[in-house]
Amino acid sequence: MLIRGVALLAGCFIAGQLLGETLGRLIHINANVGGVGFAMLLLVFAQNWFEKRDSLHPEMESGILFWSKMYIPVIVAMSATQNVRVALSSGLIALAAGIIPVAICLFLVPSITRISLKTPEEWSI
Where are the transmembrane segments (predicted)? Predict the structure, then answer.
């Protein structure tokens, strides 16, 4: 079962990398755009899917949790190999790719906080 958790993570990583490469090619950038982020989202969705169906065995969950703990150091090591100078000199797309998501998150945090403090009866969308 531990192997199944690691296999699930590996499958999510490969799918995320393929999505990142495809997105990079679609927007005409010769780079992987968000592949690791897509992999992490796929892993969260897959784990949630297994939990809803009560088919996430403790051993499988331990395999996922082990690699989840290792994920952050791996991401830091991967990002350390990227050449920031080339990214900044390649144009505004690199700056926009960093600034726009941060701005959106900063803009949405107060809204999400207000929504989370309301009871479901107070929600009006």
Answer: 30-50, 62-80, 86-109
pLDDT(94) > 80 = no
Task: Give 11-49 as a 3 state SS string.
Answer: HHHHHHHHHHHHHHHHCCCCCCCCHHHHHHHHHHHHHHH
Query: Taking a C-beta distance cutoff of 8 angstroms, is the pair 9, 67 a contact?
Result: yes
pTM confidence score? 0.57
CA distance 96 to 82: 17
Alpha-carbon gap, residue 4 to 102, rounded angstroms: 35
In a 13 Å sphere around the CA of 68, the CA atoms on its Cβ side amount to: 14
Q: Which residues contact 1 (CB under 8 A, 6 or more apart)?
A: 57, 58, 59, 60, 62, 63
